[in-house]
Amino acid sequence: MIATLSGFASLYFATFLLMIGSGLINTYMALRLSAESVSEVWIGLLISGYYLGQVIGARIGHRLIIRAGHVRAYLAAGALATCVILAQTLITEVPAWVCLRLVAGVAMVVQFMATESWLHEQTENHHRGRVLSLYLVMSGVGTALGQLSITLYPTLDLRPLTFAAICQAMSLIPIALTARRHPAAQMPAPLDLKYFLQHVPAPMITVFLAGAICGSYYGLAAVFAVKMGLTTNQVATYIATGVIAGLISQWPMGWLSDRVGRAGLIRVNASLFCVIALLMWGWVAWPFWVMLLFSAALGVLQFTLYALASGLANDSIEPVRRVGMSAIVLMTYGVGACLGPIAAGGLMRLGGPGMFYVFASICALVLIVVIGKKTTTTQ
Known about the structure:
Order of helices and strands: HHHHHHHHHHHHHHHH
Strand content: under 5%
Number of helices: 16
Distance between the termini: 32 Å
CATH class of the largest domain: Mainly Alpha
Structural class: mainly alpha
Number of domains: 2
Largest sheet: none
């Protein structure tokens, strides 16, 4: 782990700083707008706007990285994201914030693309799982610290936005000063969704389902827990248990995937996820400590899906298509994260809170079927 961390230290540290600001601003907006009695519809639009920006920005990022290179694309996007955050301190109208969050999504997905394609390009297949898992660990730790840092600002004034902008700006420094070898200039490869669906169909579907499962979890797991009769403190513990378990398991799961194969591991994990989620359909009133165990197990299985699918896709993609692969992966995940909460929320409205995990089980079942088929095709 130490060797992996030191090998990509600048990229990991930049991601850590970037996600502190991201985690803080998301929590800040939800709390401030709720305190101002803003409709949940507008709060939901802020989240959807951000993910929509990521979907749109993936294509922009693909062209920008090809034209300007990874480093300059990252710095330009980071500068734009910093300006967008600072603009929120000057403009307080919620519709304007939705537009600004869309632009933020565009800018930040370019940063994610530059980082992830950089990592994939300079990593051998037998190390890919560990390298990407450590990247997601740094991302998760940064997000968690950003969410916790809101406690430093109990009045919910504009200072959290300023702090988030500082973190975003500071994330540019490790990239600008990195001694790491820059990715080689690439010939323009088309951003061809059809190509990736033909050559890596199962990983692409896995990424989409990972987005649907994780997006619905972030948006609706708390609603499920409340409707199951948990107290506010129990809800927070339930959610945190799943997130922390997923965070801790990233490195071991990446290490394991480098040894036993990513496709088989995804299939096993999806099968376990389907069984455990089935136990949460609401047929049994489980004690709270049992629900925490289930939350931890599901957190391990769902939050490692993205890294496994991304690694599997990049194992068999030629280097010239790395940037395009990162763009398509992030776009696909973003679409899943947008649609998942809508589908799960509709089922919950019709059938009660247990339908939250019925939706998750359906996604896992589809994943088992998909990953059992041919994963990639010959280049």
